[in-house]
Automatic annotation (TrEMBL):
SUPFAM superfamilies: lambda repressor-like DNA-binding domains. InterPro entries: Cro/C1-type_HTH (IPR001387), Lambda_DNA-bd_dom_sf (IPR010982). Keywords: DNA-binding. It comes from the Bacteria. SMART domains: HTH_XRE (SM00530). PANTHER family: TRACRIPTIONAL REGULATORY PROTEIN-RELATED-RELATED, TRANSCRIPTIONAL REGULATOR. This is Helix-turn-helix domain-containing protein. Residues 6-60 form the HTH cro/C1-type domain. CDD domains: HTH_XRE.
Length: 70
């Protein structure tokens, strides 16, 4: 599943994939793969991305399922 939340958050700060990658210590390809839903990042990387973008884990990585009933 694509991570559009990450892409939108990155756009809000006008940060390229390359710039975000440099800030969190990974390659641009890694950020691109996370956004495309082709890579499942470690918790450590998720936290680093959140800190770099001023967001929480819930903001960027929590998948909401509106069809789920509690």
């Amino acid at each position: 599943m694509k991570n559009l939340k990450l892409k939108v958050a990155r756009a809000e700060y006008d940060i390229s994939q390359d710039e975000l990658a440099k800030r969190v210590g990974v390659t641009r390809q890694t950020i691109g793969m996370i956004e495309a839903g082709k890579f499942n990042p470690s918790l450590q990387l998720c936290i680093a991305i959140c800190k770099a973008l001023g967001k929480t884990l819930n903001d960027l990585f929590w998948e909401e399922n509106s069809n789920e009933k509690i």
